[in-house]
Amino acid sequence: MDRIDAQPLTAASADRLDRLFRLYNARLLGFAATRTRDFATAEDVVSETWLRAAVSLSQLRADDAHAYGWLRSIAFRAAVDQYRPRSASEKPEDWTDALASRALPSTPAAEAVTDVFALDVLSVPQCAAVKLAAQGLSNGRIARQLGKSRQAVQQNLASSARRLRAYALAG
Asked: What pLDDT, in 10s, does the model give residues 22-81?
């Protein structure tokens, strides 16, 4: 959906969007959570749903009490688009850095020092998965590049998130 050509919301449209948000946001979040089986992804899907709804609010002919079906169909398409492969945007910038060991650079930038030490608490496979994910690659592409299963990549990313969270709380 092209948001560049979207018209700005009028005051009446903004009020209606606010009413719809108050009525249906929790319900849409529940729907998206059942579709994606991941709360963070569900939040992304619902955010995208509200953006798309704002752009096409003039197309809604139903009253506010009957608008859930329209919003749910937008959420369904947003959930499908969330998992659609983005091959053009999944071009890594530099594979050598992701597959290299965790050795510190000779002269790191001042703001990057904490990131380098934070990544040092990760194992080599976790570090590689995190660096590739940070470049915007999907779990499938990361798995193919590292020669692992998608489940192994998901486990590496989840355990690295736990380790980094614990490191951030401890430090």
From this structure: 999 999 999 999 988 888 889 999 999 999 999 999 889 989 999 999 999 999 999 988
Question: From residue 43, how far is each of 10, 93, 149 by CA, in Å?
Answer: 26, 28, 26
CA-to-CA separations, 153 to 15, 44, 148, in angstroms, rounded:
43, 21, 7
For the entire predicted model, the pTM comes to: 0.50
Name the residue among 104, 165, 95 with its Cα closest to residue 137.
Answer: 95
Q: What is the spatial distance between Cα 85 and Cα 89, in angstroms, rounded to a whole number?
A: 9
Return the pLDDT at 104.
43
| Other Cβ atoms closer than 10 A to 37 | 9
How many residues are listed for the chain in this entry?
171
Amino acid at 96: T
Which amino acid is residue 41, in one-letter code? T
Which two tokens mark 88?
């053009």
Q: What is the pLDDT of residue 91?
A: 56
| Helices 124-134 and 150-170: angle between axes, nearest 10 degrees | 90
User: Is the CB of residue 73 less than 8 Å from the CB of residue 60?
Assistant: no
